[in-house]
Structure formats: structure tokens, C-alpha cells
Amino acid sequence: MADQDFPLIFEHSQESRTGFSLPELDVPEEDVDGLLGETLVRKTPAELPEVSELQIMRHYTALSTRNHGVDSGFYPLGSCTMKYNPKMNEDVARLTGFSHIHPLQPTETVQGALSLMYDLQETLTEITGMDTVTLQPAAGAHGEWTGLMMIRAYHEGSGDYNRTKVIVPDSAHGTNPASATVAGFEAVTVKSNERGLVDLEDLKRVVDDQTAALMLTNPNTLGLFEENIEEMASIIHEAGGKLYYDGANLNAILGYARPGDMGFDVVHLNLHKTFTGPHGGGGPGSGPVGVTAEFEPYLPKPILTKREDMFVFEYDRPKSIGRVKPYYGNFGINVRAYTYIRTMGAEGLKKVSEYAVLNANYMMRRLQKEYELPFDRHCKHEFILSGKRQKKLGVRTLDIAKRLLDFGYHPPTIYFPINVEEAIMAEPTETESKETLDAFVDAMLQIADEAKADPEKVQEAPHTTIVSRMDETTAARKPILRYIRED
Ligand SMILES: *Cc1c(COP(=O)(O)O)cnc(C)c1O
Predict the structure, then answer these.
(1) What's the rounded Cα separation, in Å, for the pair 134 and 304?
(2) pTM
(3) Cα(439)–Cα(407) distance, rounded to whole angstroms?
(4) What residues bear N6-(pyridoxal phosphate)lysine in this entry (predicted)?
(5) Is 218 in the pocket of ligand 1 (CB under 6 A)?
(6) Res. 358: pLDDT tops 90
(7) Atom from ligand 1 closest to the CA of residue 79
(8) Atom of ligand 1 nearest to the CA of 144
């Protein structure tokens, strides 16, 4: 198994080789066992590789270079906003006044941190056009659930127990119907029309006195700005429902449009997308939720407020949906987002959206030469292609994605949204240069040529990666989750 290219650290193991040196034990070993207690002491030593510090260092360094990250290459993964995360954010998050404090510390001793949280709340309130914001939710889906729980508490608080349905467009991110279900609602689908927007006739058909809310992603998952928001808002509000805005795509509209001004009641943001929290490895996120004043009593508690000159947490909130997370949110990610917003400034944030939209449209128009464009109109921050033409030649969208790995790119999102055949969904973000966009488009156009002239080359890709194409079905059905010695 072991080879130079993929060193399995266990195979380098030599008996008694160590990567540490500890002083001699100066108490009897039995006493240590006694202190730990019977149940905590191993009967046999753990089977760990016995290697030197240098070997383990090389092992992990080698593994780290086999990952693709936004710091190593272009990452146009649609719906994910894989933009560059400025390193200044990291410096600020590591200031000891932020990183060495404890959530149980008396609030008088952490006024600086609370001041940052308060300012971030105020800033996000301004950016979204809502009345107030909570920083508690840990990510986008968690924000959705939090917002829906508030909508539920609101309806029940008005004595309306009949509102059991949440309307979700068929183009929505998968987390939307999932959050609605977990929040105890029935998710009802509203169709998109041939232009990729919510079909108003279908919306009128599915709305009724059981509608708790409409969850809308805007710009939607096709990268298109929903044109009929005001009409949708009045349809839903007239039926007594509330409007939920999935703001994970805010990168497209910063400083240009605000959910609050469009009539939305509840909105969540993904700070780890739009506001440069590093993400992609399942790490911590932050999904603040903004609401209008009528939802304020239902916010998760405690809420952070200012009393005279002190920031304090207020716990006496009888209508609150309760805590949604231990302590006060993913503070470190919030520090990064705050740093980003302050370094960009209001004008800078507008530019973010301008360039994000410009980059997406530039790529889309160049790629249109070879790839089917199902919705031929200006897009916002991302766009959808279809690999239909290539499929006729026997090359599937999956093959195209795998071939892109040979060029050193992370592929776009594929087979999503599900309402587009052989979908390819790309989001370049504002932080990429024209040269990078051009090089990526050239690679895509070359792959389209290969699909015609040499389809096998694409079908058998990737050719240059450490691991070739994986058998994903077997990997899912029979996962090998730990090292098994072959002897
Ligand atoms: C990413 C995303 C979500 C989910 O956010 P998580 O932080 O991954 O839970 C929801 N909606 C849209 C449109 C998204 O792009």
C-alpha cells in the first residue's frame, strides 16, 4: 500500500521510535492509575504509529497540499461564495482580547468583545434593512430554522395554530425545505416558470390560510433576481403569512438592495460566505437572523443590549424561542466578519457586489459559446449552464467536473439545481482576476472540444490527481473509515 506519493503514516512505524521526549515519571506508576481511576486507564497501549516528529510533520504537510482551498486555486463552487478570506481577519480574531476570553466571564470584563458584537448587530441591521439582528445561529441552515421557529412562535402568539405550511420554490437550496420540516412545518413546493423565477400563478394556487411563510432565496439558486418580489410579498401577506428571505446570496446585492425594503419579515445571512468567514471544511459558520420589530419579542435569548454605558445580556424575555446555541454565537467568525465589513466600508461592499456580478456575467457569456445556457439573461453572482450538448456526445457533466481537476481547479457545483438537466452552477466571486477567469473559461472550452474530438479523455479524467476517479457508490455503501494493517 505504502508508496512515496501517498505515505500512510502507519507504514513508517518503527518500534520504540518516538516524536517526543518527556522527563522520567517521578511518581509511582500505580499512583497515576489510581488517580485516573480504573475505567480511564487502558489495559493495552493504543496502537499508534511510532514515528519521529519530522516524519509526522512531513506526513501532515503532504496531506495538506493534497487539499484544494481558495488559497491554492480557483474555486467557483456555485451557491458557496468561495471568495478569498483576507488574512487581516485572522490577525484580528487572534488578538488575545478576543481569543483568550471565556463566555462565562463577567460581562464587565469583556465590554470590548460585546461592543464588537453590538456594532456587528447594528451594521447587519443596516445592511439588511431589518429592525434588529441576533448573532446566535451557527450557520445558514441554523439561521433558517431559528427564523422559522420565530415565525411559528409569532403565529401561535397570535392564537393562530392553523399555519402549518411553508412554501418553498423548487429552485431553493436543499436546506430550505429541510429547515421547514425540522421546524415542524410541512414544506409545500411552488414551481419556477420558464424564466427561472417563481411562478406567480402557482404561488396563488398553493397559498392559503394554512400558509405560515414563503421562504425565498434571492437572487435565487439560478443566480437570477426575482422580479416579482413586491407582488409575492402582497400575495403572502394578504393571506396572513410571513416572508422569509434566505440571504446566503447577499454577495450579489450588497449596498444595492435590502430585504427589509422589499417587505421581508425575517432574513438570515451567511457570514461565512458573504463576509469572508473561512468555510468549506465543515468548520464554524455564522448565520445571523434579522427581523422586523414585530418579531423582536421572539428572538433567541439572551439578547445583547446597551444600558447606559454598559453592554449587557438581557435574559428576561418571556416570549423568546429560547437559546438556539450555547453561549452567544460563533464569536470568532463574527470577529472576522466585522473586520471585513470595517475594512471594506460601505462603498467597498457595493464594489464587492458589482465585481461579483460582473465576473459571473463575463464568464457566462464566454462559456455560452460551447455550453447550453438555459436562462439567457443577465445573471447576478452565479449562473447555470447545462451539459446537455456534451451529454449527447457521451460526456456527462460529472466527467467535465472531473476533467477540470486536471487543470488545477475546483469544479463548479454540478447536478444542482435539480430543475436543470446536467446542471453546472458556477460562482466566480469578486476576488478573482480577469486572467484567472479567462484561464478557467479556456479550460472549459478546451474540455468542450475534447468532448467532440476525444471523449475518452474526459470520460476517464482526472489523469493528474493523486487519486483517480473514485467509486462513489462503493465508498458510500462500504466505507473504510480506519487504517487496516495488511498482515
Ligand atoms: C449555503 C446556503 C445555505 C445553507 O447555509 P449553511 O451555512 O451551509 O447551513 C442556505 N441557502 C443558500 C441559498 C445557500 O447558498
Answers:
(1) 8
(2) 0.91
(3) 9
(4) 273
(5) no
(6) yes
(7) 15
(8) 10
Ligand 1 atom closest to residue 273's alpha carbon, by position in its atom list:
1
Cβ of 139 below 6 Å from ligand 1 = yes
Tell me the per-residue pLDDT of 160-186, one tens digit each, with 9 for 90 and over.
999 999 999 998 999 999 999 999 999
Ligand 1 pocket residue status of 268, Cβ below 6 Å? no
**How far apart are the CA of 328 and the centre of ligand 1, in A?**
20
Same fold, 87-342 and 354-476: no
Q: Can you name the CATH fold of 87-342?
A: Aspartate Aminotransferase; domain 2 (3.40.640)
CA 344–ligand 1 middle distance (angstroms) = 23
168 Cβ below 6 A of ligand 1: no
Contacts of 380 (CB under 8 A, 6+ apart): 219, 223, 224, 225, 249, 252, 253, 356, 357, 360
Under 8 Å between Cβ of 373 and 38: no
**Cα atoms in the 13 Å half-sphere on the side-chain side of 343:** 14
C-alpha cell read off for 193: 416558470
**Domain edges within the chain:** 3-64, 87-342, 354-476
Burial code (b: 16+ CB inside 10 Å, e: under 16) for 29-60 equals eeeeeeeeeeeeeeeeeeeebebeeebeeebe
CA–CA separation, 353 vs 119, rounded Å?
22
Q: What is the pLDDT of residues 418-455, one digit of tens each?
A: 889 999 999 999 999 999 999 999 999 999 999 999 99
Q: pLDDT, tens digit, for every residue of 451-466? A: 999 999 999 999 999 8
Give the pLDDT of residue 183.
97
What is the amino acid identity at position 485?
A: R
| pLDDT per residue as tens digits for the range 103-129 | 999 999 999 999 999 999 999 999 999
Query: Could you tell me which of 98, 100, 150, 104 has the C-alpha nearest to residue 326?
Result: 104
Residues 194 and 307: their CA atoms lie apart, in Å, by 53
pLDDT at 362 over 70: yes
Out of 3.40.430.10, 3.10.25.10, 2.40.50.100, 3.90.1150.10, which CATH number does the structure's domain 354-476 have? 3.90.1150.10
* C-beta 246 within 6 A of ligand 1: yes
Question: Looking at the DSSP assignment, which residues form a beta bridge with residue 311?
Answer: 306
Please give the Cα distance from 250 to 84 (Å, whole number): 16
Q: Which of left, alpha, beta for 342 (phi over 0: left; psi -120 to 50: alpha)?
A: alpha
For the ranges 181-185, 238-242, 281-285, 481-485, the lowest mean pLDDT is seen at: 481-485
Q: Does 79 contact ligand 1 (Cβ within 6 A)?
A: yes
- The Cα-based distances of 195 to 22, 198, 451 in angstroms read 68, 9, 29
